[in-house]
Amino acid sequence: MKNDTTNVKEEVNKGSNKSSGPRRTLYKSTSKKIADVTIFTLLSIFSITMVLPFVWMISTSLKTPIQTRTSTPEWIPDPIVWTKYVEIWEKAPLLTGFMNSSIYAIVVLAFGTFFTALGAFAFSKLNFPGREKIFLGLLGTMMIPFPALMIPHYILFVNLGWIDSLLPLIVPAMLGNVFMMFFLRQFMNGISDEIIEAAKIDGSGYFGIFWKIMLPMIKPAIAAQVILWFMGIWNDYVGPLIYLHSPRNQTLPLMIANFNAFYEIQNDFPLIMAASLVSMIPLLVVFFAFQRYFVESMNYAGVKG
Amino acid sequence: MATQGLSRLNRKEKWIAFIFIFPLVLQFVLFLFGPLIYSFYISMTDWNIFGTATFIGFENYINMIQNDRFWRAMGNTAFYLLGIPIGLAISMVLAVWMNRGIPGITIFRFLIYLPVVSSIVAITILWQWMYNYEFGLINHLLNSVGINSVNWLNNRDWVKPAIIILGIWRGLGVSTIFYLAALQNIPKSLYEAAEIDGANFLQKFRHITAPLLTPMTFFLIVTGVINTMQIFVEIQIMTPAGGPGYSSASIVFYIWQEGFQYNALGYASAASWLLGLMIFVITIFNFAMQKKWVHQ
């Protein structure tokens, strides 16, 4: 947002720059204007193309299956049928899916964020033997691809009797997130040690320093990371696919995928589109609500590599 | 008194630090490093979930490299990597266009980013419907410009491009925003100097923009390769059997099928170790090549 406005201002200033002479400015600004209009048009066409699938999704969800069997695309359904949005709740335990996904997300994010921040604090501000080695060891696990872990995890959870419950998804994840820990540590390294030393002299314990001083200071960094993590959890498909069998225990993505496999045979695409659309709402709400943090966090990740 | 209290506090520091990092270390032992080592052991056995495990050495690995479906999955995964340069080229152009300071950028950026924040499963299902042979949107649009319908997901030649197109559409938002951030870090003075020398748009792009974007391109290639090597969700949902003639199955799809559909846990572990090793070697290779083309 900010960058865009400054860019516009700079362009405006450049346009009225007198040092390059009046004729040159005139020539440059007309050719630049033509280029700008062309590019604006191209970007508009491209962005609209990018959104077309979503429009098609909404359009399909407001049709009857018969209305989808046309030879040319019908963008605005005639008539508009809302019944699929009622039907989806009757045809699958979607509400249970929402509940399961929410439990998964809330428990993991609550515990995981706490443990991750606590660990990052120790690696950034406390002295202990082997600090760098342990840190690098943890960081190294970011390179392990999930497929390499899914079979031993499966065997472990079969032996623990955790299959067909949310535990295999929740327990490993709630212990922390190494990528986020790395990110928060970088953030905390930028905070002066003096604040910590001063708090020590004032008689604060280490946990008090973490909770009362550090946590409030790194709130924006945590917010950005929690959003990314939430999206990861809400999108998780492979884990639930492996562990969750009975419909009442399934998370939303798995339920929607099974729903799709079942109704695709019957060509009930409006029903499938309605269910898929509804399943995305939490993600879109989070995105709209925290868009600022989100874009910021992308920028951070880009800069930090 | 005060210094004595402080040093006692410092001695305590070590133990408190260990408590603070305990959850992460526990995760490392129980769910990351431990399982990784255990999976290597399983990969040397003939274990399926029902029987007992017999140690068979490298037999799984030897069987694998003689398995036709494994090589098809490898070839398909390599094909999917083609989506990375295409996606990066498009997003670089988009970012350059969006960086001109024309109005409406916030909206363009938002629209292009929308697929990134949508549910992967929901989007895959949406594209499966769009690729529908008879009534899908894509064939409707192709027909309207006089091109015959393509049976996207049931055609050996088209199923992989179909999955690549979905991947590019879904990933453009991220790479465009990253490129945009990188472009805003390029000093304006470089372009002004080039303009004085009479450089045209293409020359500026070739000699200033593209070289200064190479660190970002490098980052996007490295992460893109790691992610694409693990492509699974799109394939499992759109082509539950791995496509006609196994033409869409990826390595992770193969691992999942062997491990969880056929219960060949030992064999699947071997395949997953091979995948992990490949990702590792390719990533190391990417970093080694970095000096040759990435602008420092």
UniProtKB/TrEMBL annotation, chain A:
PROSITE patterns (alphabetical): ABC_TM1 (PS50928)
Gene3D superfamilies (alphabetical): MetI-like
Keyword Cytoplasm: no
InterPro entries: MetI-like (IPR000515), MetI-like_sf (IPR035906)
Family label: Belongs to the binding-protein-dependent transport system permease family.
Species lineage: Bacteria, Bacillati, Bacillota, Bacilli, Bacillales
CDD domains membership: TM_PBP2
Record has Transmembrane helix as a keyword: yes
Any coiled-coil regions, as ranges: none
Subcellular location: Cell membrane
UniProtKB keywords: Cell membrane, Membrane, Sugar transport, Transmembrane, Transmembrane helix, Transport
Annotated ranges, domain ABC transmembrane type-1: 98-290
Parts of the chain that traverse the membrane: 34-58, 103-123, 135-156, 162-184, 205-231, 269-290
Bilayer topology annotation: Multi-pass membrane protein
Biased amino acid composition, Basic and acidic residues: 1-13
Main location: membrane
Name of the protein this chain belongs to: Multiple sugar transport system permease protein
Region (Disordered): 1-25
TrEMBL record, chain B:
Family matches, as PROSITE patterns: ABC_TM1 (PS50928)
UniProt subcellular location: Cell membrane
Domain of life, source organism: Bacteria
UniProt keyword Acetylation present: no
Segments forming domain ABC transmembrane type-1: 73-286
Keywords: Cell membrane, Membrane, Sugar transport, Transmembrane, Transmembrane helix, Transport
Residues spanning the membrane: 15-38, 78-98, 110-130, 162-182, 212-233, 264-288
Topology within the bilayer: Multi-pass membrane protein
Main location: membrane
InterPro entries xrefs: ABC_transporter_permease, MetI-like, MetI-like_sf
Pfam families hit by this protein: BPD_transp_1
Entry's family note: Belongs to the binding-protein-dependent transport system permease family.
Name of the protein this chain belongs to: Multiple sugar transport system permease protein
